[in-house]
Specification:
Elements: H1 8-31, E1 33-55, E2 58-78, E3 83-100, E4 103-120, E5 128-135, E6 138-142, E7 145-160, E8 168-181, E9 185-202, E10 206-219, E11 222-223, E12 231-246, E13 252-263, E14 269-274, E15 277-281, E16 286-299, E17 302-316, E18 321-334, E19 337-354, E20 357-374, E21 378-388, E22 394-395, E23 401-407, E24 414-415, E25 421-426, E26 429-434, E27 444-453, E28 458-473, E29 477-493, E30 502-515, E31 520-533, E32 538-552, E33 555-568, E34 575-586, E35 592-603, E36 610-623, E37 626-639, E38 642-656
Antiparallel strand pairs: 1-2, 1-38, 2-3, 3-4, 4-5, 5-7, 6-7, 7-8, 8-9, 9-10, 9-11, 10-12, 12-13, 13-14, 13-15, 14-16, 15-16, 16-17, 17-18, 18-19, 19-20, 20-28, 21-27, 22-26, 23-24, 23-27, 25-26, 28-29, 29-30, 30-31, 31-32, 32-33, 33-34, 34-35, 35-36, 36-37, 37-38
């Protein structure tokens, strides 16, 4: 048919189709090239680092100047959907001045950065990525230490997805090394990891996921002041994670995780865990839940088998009244000890609206029948993780602790009692805290191995009752009181530790009052606790007052004063803690932030006077592609006669292009 024989409308559509086809052909032709550079970015920068640690018998001071230039290119080979490349590198020059108690020296370093990412078939269902990344970042491995660390990581990531397979498979394998030295810490790590995952969506909002991971770690990291014993470990884990929606209205949620983990040494470990969980939504007001948790583990010669079964329901009885009921059975077996507990309980919650606020009431009870069988006088815990920072005392999980050993996470070093950490026993509870001037860094997570008394063979019952009332007034004020009581009755056996009935009362009041359209807030809280028991009774009082105001539109000031007094009636290790915080946040110029904070704590209630003061300033300013950042921190801490001062300063000027 000749073109002029077509209708005007049809002729217009045909011409548009021809134009779109030709235009797409030109685009495709332009994209296909042997090599095409699509972008270049990078930066030049200057940085100053200072790490200054002052202790009574020693000092460490490191000043570092850095000059860095880095370039990163973006390109592709043949076509963007075939191979995308991110290739780059840079040079880092450092000039260092080190001054320690053992002497002084100056030294220079020439370091380099390299980055290479090759992404094959990125938009296909079978992408592959090869990567290599070498850097020299300034890192902080604790709240009070920063240093330059050399890192190297290379590996491969690949996947096969639908429609090639009816499920997705992902593989990631890499090797990573890290080396660095700060004022107190050495980092020397090598990790080889292979991770595989198979995933498939099942039904509405359901899925099944199978993962397998192998992790090999070599570590010679730790404190410079203690011997380091290099450790090599290999861990393997397999996990099956499933989630299903069941029922005609998808009213049943079913989740289950089955996992298996092994580790060859430090310590030798084998663990199996199964955790199915069902939640059934019977209506908008009522749901029930069914939970099971099974754990079987062997750590060195410590064997543990824990089983927990729970069934419960919750319902909105009326518009204001909610009720829950639960039954639970727990069987815990570990080397030297077996305990069984069957319990049932319930709770009611009531909300009563008032013209000036609302009243919240709650009451609960739980009855338990328990039995404890012992085949040894003590049981063990291996590798309990505890974070130690500031002046915080952290209670160990089990009571009546006999002996304690503390390690770093890599188990390359064992810390020393009274030199690195302090143990305080109040009644049946043992607390651990880091010691100022020791080898545990502020904020470090340590591993605690300890043994505890098993308590002898015993059969007993317990009844807990608890009641709460809260009165909320005009959104800004609240008054609350709570009471809890737990009684025990001995049914048989001869316990070697007391059953220890407890009553606990808490009363408190809180206010949070806004002024001037919420630009000023004033508030505080007072709390009194009365804890009565046979082993370790105490009284506690705390007061807190805060003030926050917008001085101008871009400046916010926050002030806090806090005090905690705790009198342990059968111990001299009391608490009399005072804390003050001053924080100033501002945006002095467009695209800039600046914050200044001083936090001061002092506890004079125990055998040793403890203090911790932290001053920090953090800021950033951007002028087009010029970025200036500053991060400065001074931490002063003392424990009795032991004290130290740690100053960390980092300032950087960076020009991006």
């Amino acid at each position: 048919m000749p073109l002029d024989g077509l209708s005007k409308k049809l002729r217009y559509r045909l011409l548009c189709s021809i134009w779109i086809f030709l235009n797409q052909s030109l685009v495709i032709a332009e994209e296909i090239k042997a090599y095409n550079l699509t972008g270049v970015e990078g930066h030049v920068g200057l940085q100053y680092l200072k790490d200054d640690l002052q202790q009574p018998q020693s000092h460490y001071r490191l000043r570092t100047n850095q000059e860095e230039v880095s370039v990163l290119t973006h390109s592709y080979v043949y076509h963007p959907n075939f191979l995308k490349m991110d290739l780059g590198g840079g040079l880092l020059l450092t000039q260092n001045e080190l001054d320690t108690s053992l002497g002084s020296r100056e030294y220079d370093e020439e370091l380099y950065n390299l980055t290479a990412y090759l992404r094959f078939l990125e938009n296909k269902p079978y992408p592959v990525t090869l990567y290599y990344d070498r850097g020299n970042p300034s890192v902080s491995n604790s709240l009070t230490e920063r240093f330059v660390q050399q890192t190297e990581k290379y590996g491969v990531n690949a996947a096969v997805r639908e429609p090639v397979l009816p499920f997705a498979i992902e593989v990631d394998a890499y090797r990573q090394t890290s080396e660095g030295r700060g004022s107190t810490q050495i980092v020397d790590e090598k990790t080889d990891q292979v991770f595989m995952r198979a995933y498939r969506a099942i039904g509405k909002d359901g899925y099944g996921q199978l993962t397998y991971q192998v992790n090999r770690r070599e570590s010679a990291s730790g404190s410079q002041n203690l011997p380091i014993q290099k450790t090599e470990t290999e861990g393997k884990s397999t996990s099956l994670d499933t989630h299903f929606k069941l029922g005609a209205k998808n009213q049943i949620d079913f989740t289950n995780i089955i996992s298996y983990f092994t580790q060859d040494v430090s310590p030798k470990r084998e663990e199996v865990r199964v955790t199915p969980n069902i939640t059934w939504h019977h209506s908008d007001e009522t749901y029930s839940y069914y939970r099971f948790d099974y754990l079987n583990s062997e750590i060195d010669e410590l064997e543990t088998e824990n089983t927990s079964s729970t069934i419960g329901a919750s319902t909105q009885l009326t518009e204001r009244l909610n009720g829950t009921a639960e039954a639970n059975s727990v069987v815990n077996k570990t080397t030297g000890l077996e305990s069984t507990s069957n319990n049932i309980g319930g709770r009611l919650s009531y909300t009563y609206p008032l013209s000036f606020g609302k009243l919240l009431l709650g009451a609960g009870t739980r009855y338990a029948s328990s039995e404890r069988k012992t085949s040894a006088g003590e049981a063990r815990v291996i590798g309990e993780q505890v974070r130690l920072d500031g002046l915080n005392r952290v209670a160990l999980t089990f009571q009546y602790v006999i002996s304690v050993r503390v390690w770093n996470q890599a188990r390359t070093q064992e810390y020393l009692l009274n030199s690195d950490f302090i143990l305080t026993t109040i009644g049946s509870t043992t607390y651990i805290e880091r010691k100022s001037g020791g080898n545990i860094t502020d904020g470090e997570i340590v591993l605690v191995d300890y043994s505890y008394e098993t308590g002898g063979d015993v059969v007993f019952t317990s009844l807990n009752q608890n009641y709460q009332a809260t009165l909320e007034l005009y959104k800004y004020y609240s008054l609350n009181v709570s009471y809890s009581e737990t009684d025990f009755e001995l049914e048989g056996g001869q316990p070697t530790i007391p059953l220890n009935p407890v009553t606990h009362t808490i009363t408190g009041a809180r206010a949070d009052i806004p002024f001037r359209y919420d630009t000023i807030r004033v508030g505080g809280e007072v709390v009194h606790e009365d804890h009565n028991e046979e082993v370790s009774p105490y009284d506690s009082d705390s007061q807190e007052v805060f003030f926050q105001t917008e001085i101008t539109r871009n400046i916010v000031l926050y002030l806090l004063e806090y005090r905690l007094q705790r009198d342990n009636l059968y111990s001299d290790e009391d608490v009399d803690l005072k804390r003050q915080i001053i924080r100033l946040s501002t945006r002095p110029w467009p695209r800039s932030t600046l914050s200044f904070e001083v936090s001061n704590e002092k506890d004079t209630g125990g055998s040793f006077i403890r203090s911790y003061k932290r001053t920090s300033i953090i800021g950033e300013m951007r002028i087009r592609k010029l970025v200036f950042t500053v991060d400065g921190r001074v931490v002063e801490e003392s424990f009795g006669s032991s004290e130290q001062r740690h100053t960390i300063i980092s300032a950087a000027l960076r020009r991006e292009f």
